[in-house]
Write a structure and sequence with these properties.
By secondary structure, this protein is mainly α. The chain is built from 7 helices and 4 strands. It binds zinc ion. Zinc ion (ZN) binds next to loops.
């Protein structure tokens, strides 16, 4: 690596920063009573990665919040068509996306051949996922399936169904609905006759 590579300090400053951020919860091998005074390993070192872990409940909660965020973004529509709760959900999701994607920073790489390379440095995997979502949202590529509510990315902006299967299922349901609408007096209450045309399958 080049001579400019940053090396984190293992000094007192780091230890204080990590303690204050309650890093004890990410080092399950540290006894609870010693979390405030433990000499945590320097971030990004082999010793750090060997001992670092994340509580499963916290991981799952954050993952769920991320899914909720994408779902709200996929349901985006013109403001005039949104209810107040939908507006609140959408703005909350947007704020979360902006917060997470702001943790992706532009950087200049310094290859040994003396050239410049532009790089993006993500402070977490979640930040890099958020930036991917941001780029897809901007192009309208994140959709919610109108049949099974799965969130999916499609190169065709505003795609309605996640798969051929869902598209066929929805079409069949629509046809059956039309048939019922024509023949069931309970449903329509106003059937007055007329020709029935068999729809193609
Ligand atoms: Zn689907």
């Amino acid at each position: 690596m080049g001579i400019f590579q940053w090396k984190p300090s293992s000094g007192k400053l780091w230890r204080n920063i990590w303690r204050k951020a309650h890093m004890g919860q990410y080092f399950s091998s540290v006894p609870v009573g010693e979390r405030e005074t433990w000499a945590y390993p320097t971030p990004l070192t082999p010793d750090f990665w060997k001992n670092y872990s994340e509580p499963v409940a916290q991981f799952v909660t954050v993952a769920r919040e991320f899914v909720d965020m994408i779902t709200a973004l996929a349901r985006f529509k013109p403001e005039s068509e949104m209810s107040e709760p939908e507006k609140f959900e959408f703005l909350t999701a947007r704020n979360r996306l902006l917060y997470l994607s702001s943790q992706v920073n532009p950087s200049l790489g310094l290859p040994e051949d003396g050239s410049w390379v532009r790089e993006w440095v993500c402070t977490s995997q979640l930040a890099s996922f958020a930036m991917m979502v941001m780029l897809d949202v901007e192009r309208g590529l994140i959709n919610e399936c109108a049949n099974c509510q799965t969130i999916f990315v499609s190169s065709a902006a505003r795609a309605k169904y996640c798969s051929d299967r869902c598209r066929r299922t929805a079409l069949q349901r629509e046809r059956r609905g039309r048939k019922r609408g024509m023949y069931s007096p309970l449903k329509t209450g106003s059937y007055t006759g007329g020709e029935y045309t068999q729809l193609e399958d």
